Amino acid sequence: MTPKWVKLGMIAFLASATLTTQAITTKALAARCITSQGQFDAYKQSLAQQAASAGVGQRGMQALQQARLSGITWRFESNPSSQTGTRYRSPEQFLTARFSSVNSFVSNAKRRLNQNASLFRSLESRYGVPGSILVSIWGYETSWGGYTGDTPIVGGAVTLASYCRRHPRFEDDAIAALQLVDRGIISANSRGGPSGELGHMQFLAGNWVRFAVDGNGDGRADPNNAADALATAANMLRRNGWRGGQPYTQGSGNFRVLSAWNDSGNYQRAIAYAASLIDQ
Q1: 75 with 111, same domain?
Q2: Distance in angstroms (rounded) separating the CA atoms of residues 261 and 11
Q3: Deepest in the core among 141, 154, 206, 228, taking most CB within 10 A?
Q4: CA angle in degrees (0–180, nearest 5) for 72-229-189
Q5: Secretion signal: which residues (predicted)?
Q6: What angle do CA 60, 149, 215 make, to 5 degrees?
């Protein structure tokens, strides 16, 4: 027998063939957060009602049905300092926790910048975001596309949304991940970061829905295509207030825009620091 919550998705699919970003979340149907892993299936059933109201179709609802709780996501949320850290770290300490040295990171970033010089120039011309910032984020997030994650995106996004410390802030991203399955941008089996991040720049699904740009002109915005991901990152920063030609040092308006990407002060300082070295 088809579960009731899958039927809801089929009804929504028939009623709404074209998915849009509006009504990503319906507050009246907000799912309750959970405090134990054993409550995950109940959370999914509650989220399914919200997803159906937001227009998620058959494929997205089936992906939600298949999603399993992500153990790594749950562990990270139980110990947030294991990610970007809650205590102050210098930019040098932050970068060398993931890379062999600051010099190695900067050298690799400069090489990618030079290899894709025309792309970065066009992005700065269009969005005002310098290549040094974009290539620093790209490098920190995935080592310039070298590793984009091995956690099921839908499972990670739904697990993050379910966790009470994060709820309901990330429910929009969980529903957006289901919308991306509907659109064929990702599949139910696609893998990414531990919180449902996707592609070269590790976008949360909601940010991809809101800001996606076709950077290589093939008619499709794909988070696993570097040009598309970089263009989308530049678009996201600009639409959050980035001003071209202005400084990005700590305390500046552009520095504050980095919080739209990652709310960790350690992360923001490290990206600005790396970019300043790349620009030298």
Answers
A1: no
A2: 35
A3: 154
A4: 40
A5: 1-23
A6: 75
pTM for the full predicted model: 0.86
What's the pLDDT tens digit per position in 187-245? Answer: 999 999 999 999 999 999 999 999 999 999 999 999 999 999 999 999 999 999 999 99
For tokens 């915005």, what's the residue? 221
- Are 30 and 58 members of one domain? yes
Paired tokens of 191: 């893998």
Instruction: Report the candidate in 123, 108, 101, 133 with the shortest Cα–Cα distance to residue 279.
Output: 133
Cβ contacts of 32 within 8 Å, gap of 6 or more? 43, 46
Give CA separation, 117 vs 113, 114, 237, in Å. Answer: 6, 5, 20
Token reading at 254: 């552009």
Q: Which residue has the tokens 């039927």?
A: 7
Opening angle at CA 151, ends 53 and 60, nearest 5: 25
* Length of the chain measured in residues: 280
Q: CA torsion, points 270, 119, 191, 271, in degrees to nearest 10?
A: 0
DSSP string of the chain, one letter each residue? ---HHHHHHHHHHHH-SS--STTS--GGGPPPPBSSGGGHHHHHHHHHHHHHHTT--HHHHHHHHH----HHHHHHHHSGGGTT-SS---HHHHHHTTSS-HHHHHHHHHHHHHHTHHHHHHHHHHH---HHHHHHHHHHHHTTTT----EEHHHHHHHHHHBTTTTTTTHHHHHHHHHHHHHTSS-TT-EE-TTS-BTTTTB-HHHHHHH---SSSSS---TTSHHHHHHHHHHHHHHTT--TTS--STTSHHHHHGGGT---HHHHHHHHHHHHHHH-
Residue 144 sits in the same domain as residue 216: yes
67 and 164 in one domain?
yes
At position 109, the amino acid (one-letter code) is A
